[in-house]
Amino acid sequence: MSAPTKLPRWAELGLLPLLNLAAALVLSGLIVRIMGENPWTACKLLVTGALGSQEAIGYTLYYATNFIFTGLAVAVAYQAGLFNIGAEGQAYIGGLGTGLVCLWLGHWPFWAVLPLAVLAGAGAGAGWAFIPAWLQARRGSHIVITTIMFNFIAAALMTYLLVNVLIKPGQQSPETREFAAGATMPAVHELLAKVGIEFAATPFNLSFGLALVAAGLVWLFLWRTRWGYALRVAGENPTAAVYAGISPSRVTIGAMLLSGVLAGGLGLNELMGAQHRLLLDFPSGAGFVGIAVALMGRNHPVGIFGAAVLFGALAQGGSQLSFDLPKLNRDMVVVIQGLVILFCGALENVFRTPLAALWRRKEPGER
Q1: What is the largest CA-CA distance in the chain?
Q2: pTM
Q3: What is the rounded CA–CA span in Å between residue 19 and residue 348?
Q4: What are the residue boundaries of the structural domains of the chain, listed by start?
């Protein structure tokens, strides 16, 4: 019996994810029908709520910005053979670093605050990722377990700080005072207004551009540098990496540090661009959605961008869906996201095997 034929790159990166997505949506439609609603109506409302107006598009891209950062964070670790479940906690602590800079230096000009906020978020996110990385590399502690634990520790730490240390005096809500003007990320509608283009007011802001820059830099690092090559070799075959003089333990630590840096970028969008203050649970599960984004995007920056926009559309369209069809609350969006994760992860080979068989039949010389 011949070995299974590997799918061509266009099918691996494009066709297979689309089939997985289609299967998830069909199954979601069946669930909608069981709940007594019309799947086609629900689909139209979902699309209209995500892309049917300037405001909808702005919110979709605002959510997508968070998912680009966390999707890249998960993907870099995955390329090194690591399943980083801790992007949520790394984004949380990275946001703390960004928020502290904004609170303390917000009276400075924006051009001076931004690079410091980026560095603080990146450093705090990397620092939070370092301990699980070191435990994996030096003590053999499983990265999945330690990163999950650090998510809970990050949440507890932020609760303590916002309730007892950073809370705005005279209020009971666990959040800080608002950032000064110098620590506010310019919104896209404000930037477009300066050149005479009218766009609906949304939280969509300059962080989207920074997320695209991060995606480009990740691509350059992974596929155009010897360090990125070493990271991918160690992730593919640690034994071969050792023979090639690559240290898997160093790769583990380096990949997780970079993963934490990327996750820390979420604070730029969520805190500087939208909330303008530190508050509880500002990642809102974006670290976990980043896992689905990375899986569906095949751990490649281009695929991650497309998947992030898709999940941003689901997040925004879900609000319209729940408003017009009360039987389908926002939990239905979570169901759809879960089905996408299921088909892009655990059930990925459902379509891979028949596609590979079909491709073998088309290869020349195949009998």
Answers
A1: 79
A2: 0.91
A3: 10
A4: 68-308
